[in-house]
């Protein structure tokens, strides 16, 4: 007897989009009970391939077998029928509905003419227990965390009988704690006989959880390897096509005068709850101050306060000695503040504008871009050409809409624009979130280059590795308050973790 057929076999799948071969004769197999990672830089073709497996796209060439049988997957319904479920990057849940209502949406069990909500909720509870998902069947989506919402999406696929689960970059939206929990859930799923394809570009995750990994670069399979027979350096090199150093190279800082100073800043949200709580710190010229903390401890509010998107109730924020608290965002930008925002789609770029237009989003009204009320298109375009060249933004042209760029290239475009303004203070909020290692290296180098040019850099990141590697000094935020400041060379993940959890006030061995 021969070995069982793979649960999924892709045979030479090719998919073309105008001007690009997104998948170029890709073959891979998924074995039963396996976690198979799909690794590749942004734009490598991972989502396209999985959208084909889930019936959202049709391949131009190639075939698919499920359990050894050739199939045509011409719609998501067909995929579901074949036992395939997909957890997308952006959730498709109905906010005011309960968990159960979302899970049964479209396949409501009936009792006579009425929906049998009770038995559905019971089934949801059972599934939750079996896989350790811990979701409350009756909770409303808008009341639960992003991590929980993702579990509802997982549950939706399980409820529909999926045996093959596809996760498209599931950890991009999660906190470190939630990531660990998701890993445990995935292990549970395969232990119960499910098979998983996991799209990610995080090497750590792959090494922890995947059995095999297929590396895709520019639409082609580079290799498929067992994680037990590889290492992160090897994977990174295969992914980007060159060696990648994980250590960030930097010289000791040459620190100057304080540029940004926050003193006793307080701010309440609409509900009257304190989100910034007597918060004080300063960032000096020539240094990178990293703000470490678990998501939701005031990081976003802090940046909003500095950039003029949030009013503060008391305290002071000064930029090069001048008060900027509660000024308009434009006034603050004009005080030499640049900002790489957390949400590049909401605040960083206007997706329907061209790359060229996006490069002057905050400066278009000024000379030389604007003369006597007229936009100088030539100068704007030349400016954009220069920036995409210097910052290696990969785009077919400067007249392409920002929407069609990959995440990494969108981020490079924002960074180019913000750095080009030659600020005294550069605020970088989650600047590498969702980027692949090549782009991460690029972004971190740019931050260090700015610091070396004497700029003050404020880095806010949930990635502890990034905080440790890039910062010259670290301030830990907890519940809207700085609970301690440490130097990276005198601390470690454990101490920072305790401070981030609010159980340690000041680094024990830091002496800041
Ligand atoms: N619907 C589409 N139309 C045109 N081009 C697309 C479409 N979807 C993806 N692409 C292009 O195909 C390439 C692969 O994209 P994608 O599969 O999303 O990559 P990944 O998921 O690895 O980041 C990219 O160059 C992307 O711009
Ligand atoms: Mg993708």
TrEMBL record:
Stored Pfam families: ABC_tran
Alphabetical keyword list: ATP-binding, Nucleotide-binding, Sugar transport, Transport
InterPro entries in the cross-refs: AAA+_ATPase, ABC_carbohydrate_import_ATPase, ABC_transporter-like_ATP-bd, ABC_transporter-like_CS, P-loop_NTPase
Domain of life: Bacteria
Residue intervals of the ABC transporter domain: 8-243, 260-504
Residue intervals passing through the bilayer: none
UniProt-listed SMART domains: AAA
Gene3D superfamilies named in the record: P-loop containing nucleotide triphosphate hydrolases
GO MF term set: ATP binding
Protein name, per record: Simple sugar transport system ATP-binding protein
Protein's organism: Paenibacillus forsythiae
């Amino acid at each position: 007897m021969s070995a069982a057929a793979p649960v999924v076999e892709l045979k030479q799948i090719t998919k073309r989009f105008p001007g690009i071969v997104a998948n170029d004769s890709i073959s891979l197999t998924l074995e039963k009970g396996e976690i198979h990672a799909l690794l590749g830089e942004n734009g490598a073709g991972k989502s396209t391939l999985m959208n084909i497996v889930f019936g959202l796209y049709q391949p131009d060439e190639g075939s698919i077998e499920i359990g050894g049988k050739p199939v045509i997957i011409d719609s998501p319904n067909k995929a579901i029928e074949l036992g395939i479920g997909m957890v997308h990057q952006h959730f498709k849940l109905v906010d005011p509905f309960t968990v159960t209502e979302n899970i049964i949406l479209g396949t409501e069990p009936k009792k006579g003419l009425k929906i049998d909500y009770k038995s559905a909720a019971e089934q949801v509870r059972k599934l939750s227990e079996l896989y350790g998902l811990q979701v409350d069947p009756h909770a409303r989506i808008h009341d639960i965390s992003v991590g929980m919402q993702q579990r509802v999406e997982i549950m939706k696929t399980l409820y529909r009988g999926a045996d093959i689960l596809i996760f498209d970059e599931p950890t991009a939206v999660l906190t470190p704690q939630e990531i660990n929990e998701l890993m445990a859930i995935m292990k549970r799923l395969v232990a119960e006989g499910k098979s998983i394809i996991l799209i990610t570009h995080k090497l750590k995750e792959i090494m922890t959880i995947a059995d095999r990994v297929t590396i895709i670069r520019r639409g082609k399979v580079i290799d498929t390897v067992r994680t037990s027979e590889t290492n992160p350096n090897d994977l990174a090199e295969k992914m980007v096509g060159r060696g990648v150093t994980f250590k960030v190279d930097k010289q000791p800082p040459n620190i100057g005068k304080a540029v940004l100073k926050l003193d006793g800043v307080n701010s309440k949200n609409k509900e009257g709850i304190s989100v910034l709580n007597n918060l004080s710190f300063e960032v000096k010229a020539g240094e990178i101050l990293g703000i470490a903390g678990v998501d939701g401890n005031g990081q976003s509010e802090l940046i909003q306060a500095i950039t003029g998107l949030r009013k503060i109730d008391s305290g002071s924020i000064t930029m090069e000695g001048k008060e900027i608290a509660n000024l308009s965002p434009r006034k603050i930008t004009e005080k030499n503040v640049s900002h790489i925002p957390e949400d590049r789609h909401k605040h960083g770029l206007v997706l329907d504008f061209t790359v060229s237009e996006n490069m002057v989003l905050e400066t278009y009204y000024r000379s030389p871009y604007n003369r006597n009320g007229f936009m100088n298109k030539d100068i704007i375009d030349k400016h954009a050409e220069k920036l995409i060249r210097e910052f290696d933004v990969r785009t077919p042209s400067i007249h392409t809409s920002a929407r069609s760029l990959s995440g990494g290239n969108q981020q490079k475009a924002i960074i180019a624009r913000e750095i080009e303004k030659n600020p005294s203070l550069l605020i970088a909020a989650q600047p590498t979130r969702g980027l692949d290692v090549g782009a991460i290296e690029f972004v971190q180098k740019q931050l260090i280059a700015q610091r070396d040019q004497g700029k003050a850099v404020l880095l806010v990141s949930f990635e502890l590795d990034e905080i440790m590697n890039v910062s010259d000094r670290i301030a830990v935020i907890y519940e809207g308050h700085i609970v301690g400041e440490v130097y990276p060379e005198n601390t470690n993940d454990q101490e920072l973790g305790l401070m981030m959890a609010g159980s340690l006030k000041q680094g024990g061995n830091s002496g800041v």
